[in-house]
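Quick one, T. Sequence first:
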Amino acid sequence: MEFLTDSFMSAFVLLWGLDQELLQIVYVSLKVSSISTLIASMIGIPAGFFIAFREFRGKRLLITVLNTLLALPTVVVGLFVYAFISRRGIFGPWDLLYTQKAIVIGQVILIIPIVTTFTISAISRIDERYRKTAMTLGANALQTAWLIIREARFGIVAAVVAAFGRVIAEVGISMMLGGNAKGFTRTMTTAMALEYDKGEFVLGVALGIVLLAVSFGVNLCFNFMQGKARV
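Structure tokens:
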């Protein structure tokens, strides 16, 4: 118990003193996770909207595949991307391996199914009469789409929040594709894993506190937005 208490006390000292190594790790984590979430949202939201409102052959199969990919292990994504960007891979000459770009690529692949599936679920709950009424009143396809997205905005934002939470807490992709290079590709989760391997828990505990604080802050903002919109 004393060991745990000492670790927490030392971690709070690091946080209070704004340790430079800790800040750099947090910055890298937030940077790659935010970029990944943004790119995945730009792809997943339109894809989810299209799938939800279009009838085409294989739609049920596609949705089943997307639902299956929700449980996609990070190490599988890491191996898949590694095969393409390693020196012997197709994109080897681009020198992407062990860079932040490699982490972003892997994380985007990981969370596109999350954003797409949750967007499909959010939009499918919208009454079909919204679309028919808008088109009857003369709205074009873009205006109708915007109306539907506005009605489903909380579900869509929830999809983005879930995707962000998935990537900021993952370790497999960041370790395999980023290489855990100090000051460059070291994220909060890979740093925590490294500190555990070294038997030094102070920095790991501090990063764990920051990770929980970031996750709590994101969800608090989302809940606040929901509350304000319903007033």
